[in-house]
Amino acid sequence: MEWASLIFACLAVGCLASAQEDGVDERALSPLMKMAMELRSKKAASGDSSLLMQMAKDIRAKQAVATTAYAVTSAPTSSAPVTVTQAPVTAAPTTKAPATAAPTTHAPAPATTAAYTAAPGPAHEPAQKPNIIVFVADDLGRADISYTQGNLQVPTPDIDRLAWDGIILNRHYSNPICTPTRGAFMTGKYVFHIGMQTQAIGEAEPWGMPLDHPTQADLFRSIGYSTWHLGKWHLGAATRQYLPNGRGFDYTLGVTGGACNWFNYTIGWITPVPTSGRDLRENGKEVYANITNNVYFPELINNAAERLIRDQDPKKPFYLYFATPVAHSGFEPYFGAQHTMPQFQLRPPVYQFSSLFPERKKCLGIIQVLNEQFKRLTEAVVNKGVANNTIIIFFADNGGPLARHAAYVHGSNHASNWPLRMGKGSLFEGGVRVPGFIWSPLLKKRGRVTNQLFHVTDWLPTLWEAVGADPALLPANGDGFSHWKSFQAGLTVGPRKELVNNIDSILHQYAMIHEDQYGGLYKLIGGNAFDNSYFGWDRTEGTFAGDDSWRVYTPAEINCNFPEGIEVSKCLPNKADCLFDLLNDPCELNNIADSYPAMLKLLQDKIKAYNATSVPALIKPQDPAGLEAEWGGWWVPWLDPEPLDKVPLTYTPFQDSTNF
User: What is the rounded CA–CA span in Å between residue 23 and residue 19?
Assistant: First the structure.
C-alpha cells in the first residue's frame, strides 16, 4: 500500500515538473498538486528521500479527510405513495435550531502569498470594525470557476486562492434569478416575505425592493460605515428613493437595470416592445457620453473601487457592495451578446479552447475578466494596508443560464452548471446552488470546506455579528441565521436546518430543503419550469461523456453518486411533486417521492405553512411613460418629482488608471 502511494506521489511530482517546464501558471494547479509542489521543493532543499513517502501519506490523508464531507446517514423507512395536495394551512414552521459540534472537514489549500494571508499568530478582535467587501458574480455557473469542479477549462487562480484560504460554503443557495437574490441579500428576508418572488424588474416597471425594509447599506451606515455600491443594481428605479443613494449607499456608480452594453452602457430588450436606452449613473446622476464612453464597464467599476479604497480614511470602516455584471452576457439593444476583450481571449486556456464552441469560448474569456476583477479588489485592500482587518465574501446571484432557455432569462452566456440539473430561472440545483465563500484573517478556523446549509439571507446576520454590532439593531422577523460562531469554531454544521428556495403562486413553482434529525438532507420541488418541455442536465460545452481530461479533483466538487446526466427515476414537477435525497443524490437524478411518502408529506406541509406567511408579489407591467424614448434615450426615475437631473454631472472625462 505504501508503494502504491509512493508511485502516486512520484507521478504528482513528475506532473509538476512537466507543468513547470511547459510554463503553466502554478496558480491554476489543483490544491493537491500545489501541496505536492510544496513538498517536492522541501525534498529538493533537504535531500531527505523520506519526505517523498511522507508526501504520499499526506496526499492520501487529505483525500480521506475530504471524502468525509460526503458521508451519508440513514434515511427514513419508505411507505406507500400519497396524493399531493395544496390545501392552505396557517401555522408557520419553526426553522431555527442550535448548531451542534462536528468534526472539521479541511480542504487542502494552495500556498498563498503574504499579501493574502494574515500575519502569523491566532486571529484577534480588530481594534476597529472590519471592512467588508461583497463580491457578487452575475449568472456564474457552478462549473465556471475552478475551485468548485476543479475545472481546467476555466482557471480562476486569484478567486481560488482566497477561497482555499477562507471557508468554502459548498451548499450556498441563492434564488434562481437576479432581482430576488439581491433583494433577499439586502434585506435578510425570503423574497416571498417582501413581494419579490416572481421575476426580475424590467425597464420602466414601476416597482422595486420595498422601501419599508432597511437594507444592509442602511444598517452598516448606521453604525459608522462608509457604504459604496458599484456595478449592477436591479432593485428598482421608478423614483430616486429606489436608487442606491436612497437605500443607504453614500456613493454609487453603475447601472440601475439588469444588464447593459459594456461599452456604451445601454440597456434594452425585445419585449414587450423593443427598447434601448443609456443607464449609467453616478450618485443618481446621468453620466453622459462626453464624460465616459467606450470604457469597458468591468474596468470602469474596478477603477472606481480602487480609488474609493485608496482614498478612504483608515480610521473609518467601509462596506463595498461590488455587484459586477460579469459573467452575464453584455446586452446589445435587442439581443444578448458577450463582450470580451482581446487580452482575455488570448489567455492560453481561452485561446486553446475549441473554436467549434465560439460562445463558450467567449464565456471563458469573460470569466477571466471576473478573476481579474477579484484580483484587483484584493490587491487594493493589500496596498491600502487593511487586508488583515477586512472580510471578503463571494457568491453568485443564481446559476448559469442555459442556452436553450435564453428567451426566458434575457439571453445566455453559455455558462455551465454541470453536473447539476437545469440552470438560471429554475429551482433545481443548477439554478440555486451557487459558488460561495468567505475569507478574512479574522476567521480562526479557515482553509476548509463546509457543507452546512447556507442561504443568501444568512449574510446579513452573519456579517453583522462578525463586526460586533448589536443584534438588537437588526430588523425583527428576519429569515437569515448568523453562521459566524460556527465559522469561528470550525464546524461543518450550522444553525440552519432548512431553507425555502422559493414559493411563487403566480408562476406556480416552489422548492425547499430540509435536514432531518439524522442529518439527511431532502429537497421537495414542484410546479413549473419555463414551458415544462425540459427538466434535464446540460453538459459543459466542449466536453463529452467519458472524458475527464478537463477536470481535476477538488474537495469542493460534486459527486453525483450516479452516472452524470442520466435520470434514474423521472421527475416531472409540473405534474407531481418530486423528492430528492441531496446527500446521496446532489444532482437530482433519482426522484424518491414514491419511496418516501412520510418525508414527502412533511415537506409538503412545510411548504403550505410557509406559503401562508407569504405576501403578494409586487410586480407591475411596463409603464409606457417610463420608456427611454420619452426621456431623450435615457432610463430615468420617471415617477420621481425630479426625473431629470437639476444639476448635471460635470467633471474631467474618465482616464484609465490601470493596465487592466
Answer: 6
